[in-house]
Amino acid sequence: MSSGRSSRLSRMTASGPTPAPTTPLIGAALPTAGAGVTPDDIVTVAQTAERLGLASIWAFERLLRTVSADGENPYGLPPYYASVLDPLEALTWAAAHTSRVRLGTSVLDTLFHPPVVLAKRIATLDLLSAGRAVIGVGQGWMPEEFAATGVPLSRRGAGFEDHLAAMRACWGPDPVEYEGTTYAIARSEIGPKPAAGRIPLLIGANARPSIERAARIGDGFAPVLMDWDTTATELRWYRDAGGAGPVVLRLNVTDAAAIATDLERAAAHGIDEVLVELALTGLDVPAQCEVLEELAAARR
Questions:
Q1: 3-state SS string over the chain?
Q2: Are 220 and 200 in contact (CB under 8 A)?
Q3: Cβ-count burial of 250 within 10 angstroms (0-12 exposed, 13-18 middle, 19+ buried)?
Q4: Beta strand 248-252 pairing with 220-221
């Protein structure tokens, strides 16, 4: 892993058009979903990732898992989504047991949180971890989650842009003052501030307008691999819209034996980092760590 490439991800700086094929960095998903998750499981994966020299550890947000009369989820969400730890608090716990590895969300649904409150929580994680936070954000998609948080679905789009602008204002110099179409912040002093003065925001999206928005207002792009044809199209939309920030691809693994092939394809597409999520494999935490060991060994 080259130092230039690592620093590019850390700063989330734009660096021109489609990058040449190169080896992507590897991040690991923390075990934060399922009723059996323990604090020790999180520490084990976090410390394993750091010991192996992986780039990052990640957590995601899911507020609820709807069930129909027959007990099934209408969206096909797996049963372990019924209990998902808060991503920022899980990352703060992981931060306390690590010192180098970056701490990411993929993704955090910003609209379910007031921007001042969320900005403060993210900045707190960043400050306590000495500037290791990199935050993937999305608009959310499940109507039931919007209803449960009292947020109208119509807030997506322009309201999402307004939310991110309000958070970035909170991270800027005091006094903070913001007047948007949905959110307003009176002239105030708001802290803490991020450790390095800013926090990179990767935007997760799959529809073309949302991806073009990510290219316009995001510091990077956080797609989820559905299939490689779809991902190639999403990357083209992002880059055609002027997106030059890093791309962090979430790889929801069902077969650990296929990871090497997916990493090769990610390299061919110029993807900067691959987030390996092993929950769908059904492997327990020790077995997940073995897979991470094998991935790290193959890179040496």
A1: CCHHHHHHHHHCCCCCCCCCCCCCEEEEECCCECCCCCHHHHHHHHHHHHHCCCCEEEECCCCCCCCCCCCCCCCCCCHHHHCECCHHHHHHHHHCCCCCCEEEEEEEEHHHCCHHHHHHHHHHHHHHCCCCEEEEEECCCCHHHHHHHCCCHHHCCHHHHHHHHHHHHHHCCCCEEEECCCCEEEEECCCCCCCCCCCCEEECCCCHHHHHHHHHHCCEECCECCCHHHHHHHHHHHHHCCCCCCEEEEEECCCHHHHHHHHHHHHHCCCCEEEEECHHHCCCHHHHHHHHHHHHHHHC
A2: yes
A3: buried
A4: unpaired
Beta bridge partners of 57: 28, 103
* Residue 299 confidence (pLDDT): 83
Strand 184-188 to strand 176-179: parallel, antiparallel, or no bridges (unpaired)? Answer: antiparallel
Domain 3-14+27-299 in CATH 3.20.20.30? yes
Q: Is the dihedral of CA 9, 243, 274, 298 positive or negative?
A: negative
Q: Over the stretch 179-215, which tens digit does the pLDDT of each residue have?
A: 999 999 999 999 999 999 999 999 999 999 999 999 9
Rounded to 5 degrees, what are φ and ψ at 188? Answer: -150, 165
Determine contact, residues 26/55, Cβ cutoff 8 Å.
yes
124: pLDDT strictly greater than 70: yes
Q: Tell me, what's the pLDDT at 10?
A: 43
CA distance 204 to 211: 8
Q: What is the pLDDT of residue 21?
A: 56
User: Alpha-carbon distance 46 to 38, whole Å?
Assistant: 13
Max CA-CA distance within the chain?
54
Bridge partners (DSSP) of residue 133 are 103
> 22 near 291, Cβ under 8 Å?
no
Which of 139, 102, 120 lies closest to 246 in space, CA to CA? Answer: 102
Q: Can you tell me the distance from the alpha carbon of 43 to that of 180, in angstroms, rounded to the nearest whole number?
A: 40
